[in-house]
Fold Membrane peptidoglycan carboxypeptidase.
Amino acid sequence: MAGSGGRKVRSGVMLVGASVVAGAVVAGVALPAVGAVGLGAVSAVDDFDSLPDDFKEPALSQVSTVYDAQGGVIATVFDRDRTVVPAEAMSPYVRTALVDIEDNRFFEHGAVDLKGVLRALDKNATSGGTVQGASTLTQQYVKNVFVDAAGDDPQKVQEAQRQTLGRKLQELKYAIKVEETLTKDQILTNYLNITFFGEKAYGVESAAMRYFGVHAKDLTLPQAAMLAGLVQSPSGYDPVVNKTAAKERRDTVLRKMAEYGHITQEQAQQAIATPLGLNVHPSQQGCITAQRGEGFFCDYVRKVVLTDPAFGRTAAERQALWQRGGLRIRTTLDPKAQAALDASVTRHVYAADRPATAMSIVQPGTGKILAMGQSRPYGVSAEQHQTQINLNVTKAMGGGLGFPTGSTFKPIVAAAALEKGIQPSQSYTSGYSMPWPAMKDCAGGKFPSAGQVHNDSQNLTGAFAMPAAMAQSVNTYFANLEADTGLCEVSRMAAKLGITEQAGGEKLQVVPSMTLGSNDLTPLGMASAYAAFAAHGTYCAPTAVASVTGPDGKELAVPQAACSEVMSATTADTVTAMLKGVVQDGTGSQAGLTDRDSAGKTGTTNESRQVWFVGYTPEMAAATVVSDTEDPKPLDGQRIAGHVVEQAFGGTLAGPIWRDAVGGALAGVPAGRLADVRLPDPRQPDARQP
């Protein structure tokens, strides 16, 4: 009889605990005291009354979609794979199945099911276990809110799932609040949107797509039953790894639905006889899924959201916005331009080549980024020569340290000189090599004449005016022009064109070699700078995001196009006229387009470690660089796209990449005209730089 007495005492303890959890505390009713145990229960009631009841429905993390300018999907990105849908977008089968297997009296009881608690209490008292089971769907929903709020922090998740009296009391208090503010249908809908179904699928819409490739509204009876059965143990009943357990659980759900009269026995038997019929769609998300080389642009968009104050005052606010998701991000990417760029960079430089090429295209007058890509695919597989470093942008935006730009910086020096009043007819006579002219930095510090500057060809000697010097890329001419213009004026012009620092975040080096492109810059930065020449002196900071719609359907604020007049139209158009000469009969002749006006400048750095071509039409400005990205070695003698490059120059290596990409992007587009400006007659040297 001693054993029997012990069971009675244990039953009394469990009854008091269950009473607290079950709902006698809800009405503030005094619990019957059972000796000292009763006093503990009264304390639990006091604890319950002191708990806050300011439960708020969470903003669920869900999928965001990134679109191109034509509405095509670039990629879906998410912290958790969830798409919130309304009740009418859920199959009635799945709603009924969930209630029948988890809480068949859901529509009859309040926040707590006293009958269910007493039933569970009896089983627990008999087995000697702890209070478990008997949680209503409302209580389960509240627990799921705690778990979802814990995110991916294992410790917080464990805390949210602890089966303690304190946790049960808190869930109960909030469950009461939920029942007061939401209808049963709303609670059920919220539950189906928040709960985890395994295989990285959160919410019934994502689960339906994951396991069957259908929307939640189209789930059949056996499909709905399988999903409802997963809720109890997503890993234990995972149909991908344990089909037998998943089918047994599904069939249990079907029998329950028949038992409660929501389907007929015949329907249940037919469904039980049906195979699981999985059509698994593995979880794929993020910029790595983008096609046509769009992964780098996709990642750049992510960086914009995480760094631009338009999306939140603090980094934490912007991170929370991205993690909550549910965003529809419409970008500036032109799919035709992107396809042409991707085809060109991957055809001219192979992914497996030691050197790589990168290219950006922007729209003059708006700053819209129309295309962005590189020869190596976006990803993390070294075996497939993938990378996540975006060679087009600064380190802060997911890029690397940039590249010396070579002579592509010379048009910026020319623009500063013209703005100062120096005429295109300005002539300098020099030999192949000369000492650097003395110059001053912006603080008045002197750079004395020291070292030599020389041309790339020993035949480039004599007197040159600005147009011929630009066409033939005469280094000695631009050293003199920079000295007469002033280093500070050149750096100010660069800043107006968005070049305020180097790609790695270091200060721009305002030194004499600046005119030869000694600073490390990016294709996106250079394309945006040249776009100001095409736009008659108006510079626009590059923009990637056109609009963003939140999960509630409301438009979010996005970064506004920052455009300003940075030089006179006369200066810009004069530079354009000189750069037209570069592609007509200068160093960029292999880059020029034959069916429309184009202008641009070549660049080749010391020992041909990098080669550039930056140019534009009235519709597009683009910059292309080819460089060894490991430990930059000379490109001369390296194998690129199956051929050994004997001598690498901007016009012969980067130029054709630019030509094919921009030409393809503009195929079928009516040709615009670049400005016509009368220039002084150019001097024709005996030999031209390749």
Observations:
- The two ends are 106 Å apart (CA to CA).
- The first strand starts at residue 64 and ends at 67.
- Residues 43 and 558 are 53 Å apart (CA to CA).
- Residues 1-44, 683-690 have pLDDT under 50 and may be disordered.
